[in-house]
Amino acid sequence: MKFIDKNNVLTLLDKKIKPGTSIKMNFNTAKLYTTTAVEVPIIIERSKKPGPTVLITGGIHGDEINGVEIVRQIIAKGINKPERGTIICIPVVNVFGFLNMTREFPDGRDLNRMFPGSKKGPLASRIAYQFKEEILPAADYCLDFHTGGSSRFNAAQIRIRPEDNQLLKLAEIFNAPFTVYSKNISKSYRDTCAKLNIPFLLFEGGKSQDSNKEIAKYGVEGTLRFLDHLQMLGEDFLPPKPIKPSIIINETVWMRAKFSGLLHVKIPIGKHVEKGEYIAIITDPYGSFRHKVKATATGYVINVNQSPIVYQGDAIFHLSKN
């Protein structure tokens, strides 16, 4: 199906949206047990001038509030009103998870592992299928905003697949503090976009069930630079110039707790550490045990476990190995 016709009219969810139109529409997904419809609001802004279509999403995991907040700010500040082309914003893709503050859908499945979905599959798979068939083909570019998992705080970063020069260029334009090479995960939203040849930037920052102003700032400013590169940014906006280039990370390693106990982190997120550097302490609750945690590699700390209590084997730091 051709989503934009020769007259620059966009057809989305069976609705025709003319150039110069601002519209809020609902992506009807499913119903609650009470038969109440659950609808996913979609905010569409179209310029009269033709140009690319950028799809901006948050909340694919319902408890990842930072991603939702970034997309909210993009809308609230009017950044989503393009000088040319179309910007489609979906702040909360997984409304089910958002209502319950859970990562997954009610069926226990992770939407970001169910793409491209199935018309007759479980609930999360059906939503993935509808999204892939009825919304995604309209996009020329995708920006997707995420956070770290429970208690695991990610430094602001863009993740791209290795050996993709186009994505690397876009990541450098976005200019998050870190750009991390990571392979596409099978059945993820990112992997589906790759198969459809839609350039896709995955932003990670902060942790679930938490809103962090600094992380949101990185996400919004990166989006400004991205849209400015596509000549879509409105005349009222001036993208902030990068302070320094994004740090490219080719390889990473996880550090795991050698003991169970109380975790006391001694370094800030994003710090460059030397192998053997003292970065945390694990203690028992009774004052009789104290274990110094030392960095197992030289590199940047791109994820920190902020849980006050850890078990032996829990991931506590994610380090670059550059």
Automatic annotation (TrEMBL):
Residues of the Succinylglutamate desuccinylase/Aspartoacylase catalytic domain: 50-230
Keywords on record: Hydrolase, Metal-binding, Zinc
Keyword RNA-binding in annotation: no
Protein name, entry field: Succinylglutamate desuccinylase/Aspartoacylase catalytic domain-containing protein
Cofactor annotation: Zn(2+)
InterPro entries given in the database record: AstE_AspA_cat, N-alpha-Ac-DABA-like, N-alpha-Ac-DABA_deacetylase
